[in-house]
Design goal:
It contains twelve helices and ten strands. The chain is an alpha+beta fold. The chain has two domains: about 110 residues, PAS domain (Beta-Lactamase), CATH 3.30.450; about 200 residues, GAF domain (Beta-Lactamase, 2-Layer Sandwich). The strands form two sheets. It has a five-stranded antiparallel sheet with strand order 2-1-5-4-3, with helices on both faces. A five-stranded antiparallel sheet has the order 7-6-10-9-8, with helices on both faces. β9 and β10 form a beta hairpin. α6 runs antiparallel to α7 and α6 runs parallel beside α10. The chain is elongated, with a radius of gyration of 25 Å. It starts with a helix and ends in an 18-residue tail after the last helix.
Length: about 325
């Protein structure tokens, strides 16, 4: 059978399968069926006749590429399950099998992203329920607000898997939140204006939207490009991919904000957000009870004993932001 005959055979058989592609020994795409084109998030014209190394820069660092190289060198096929990053913030999970063929390497792939994300969602919801239960136990047991806030942040990080969590109280005249408790990957976050610089202006920051509008606000964070032009606006926390802020409110006013960061851009979805709303309500209830017992002293004592940097708390440096009625809004 000639190479041309074999390619016709491949098309007839593999067009009916899951993602299928044939790569030459130099990783040029010789053939892709429609499903493989869809999985690649590229057009057929962008793929056929081009090397994987050119279409997907950095693919050589993905474990999948090691499997391809092994197959090309030894002729031994193999299977693996893993994630693939398309380089534009999009990613997917695949089950992949490879075999050597006369033209190079045959790659069959099944997109299992939906299955993986459903399992991850179930795990995340279970963790968040665990956070709620443990924070409620802490609220019953701990009467000191400062200690309670620190414990709640630690629970959210340790039990909930969030990358970083902090609580701020609105004690200043312009209602900037004063950070009073935090946990997780906080190194450097509260320096040089802290959340005020790192979360944008009052117009586009979920922190200030939650304070301004009295409801949660969510944002997907964009990692800095490999080479950012001078003045280009990027999010300065490359380890964080999403954040959400929730107002802490008593019966008469908004008292502060709970802000959570995740390394997963899809973390704050429609299933998890109501649970986190409940977490914020529980902490708000704790504030209200403390105020009834000790008055304004309950919050004043927490803010006076804050462990975070003075610059972040006072808004010194580049992070001074004032909240006004026409500061703008952030869509939920």
């Amino acid at each position: 059978m000639t190479a041309l005959d074999r390619m016709g055979f491949y098309r007839e058989v593999f067009d009916r399968l899951e993602g299928c592609r044939i790569l030459s020994p130099d990783w040029t795409c010789l053939y892709l069926n429609d499903e493989a084109v869809r999985q690649a998030r590229r057009s057929r014209q962008e793929l056929i006749g081009r090397s994987l190394l050119d279409v997907f820069p950095g693919i050589e660092r993905n474990p999948l590429f090691s499997l391809l190289q092994q197959c090309r060198r030894s002729g031994a096929g193999g299977r693996m399950t893993g994630a693939f990053d398309f380089g534009n913030g999009d990613s997917a999970w695949f089950e992949v099998s490879v075999e050597r063929v006369p033209e190079g390497v045959l790659v069959l792939s099944t997109d299992i992203t939906g299955r993986v994300r459903a399992m991850e969602l179930a795990r995340r919801l279970s963790r968040t329920h665990h956070v709620l239960a443990n924070v409620n136990r802490a609220i019953v047991r701990i009467r000191n607000l400062g200690e309670l806030f620190e414990k709640a942040c630690m629970i959210a990080v340790n039990d909930g898997g969030f990358a970083m969590v902090w609580i701020g109280l609105t004690g200043s005249a312009d209602r900037r939140p004063v950070p009073v408790a935090s946990a997780g990957e906080t190194a450097g976050y509260f320096d040089d204006g802290g959340p005020f610089n790192r979360s944008g202006s009052a117009v586009d920051s979920p922190i200030f939207a939650a304070l301004r509008e009295g409801k949660r606000a969510v944002r997907i964070l964009q990692p800095p490009p490999s080479s950012a032009a001078p003045g280009m606006k990027v999010d300065p926390d490359p380890g964080f991919r999403s954040m959400a802020s929730f107002p802490l409110a008593t019966s008469d006013k908004i008292q502060g904000v709970l802000t959570l960061f995740s390394a997963d851009r899809d973390c704050f979805d429609a299933d998890e957000l109501p649970l986190l709303d409940t977490l914020a309500l529980d902490l708000s209830y704790a504030i209200e009870i403390a105020e009834k017992e000790t008055g304004q002293e309950a919050l004043t004592s927490v803010m006076s004993g804050r462990p975070h940097s003075a610059a972040a708390c006072t808004g010194e440096g580049n992070g001074v932001i004032e909240l006004t009625p026409d500061s703008g809004s952030v869509a939920e």
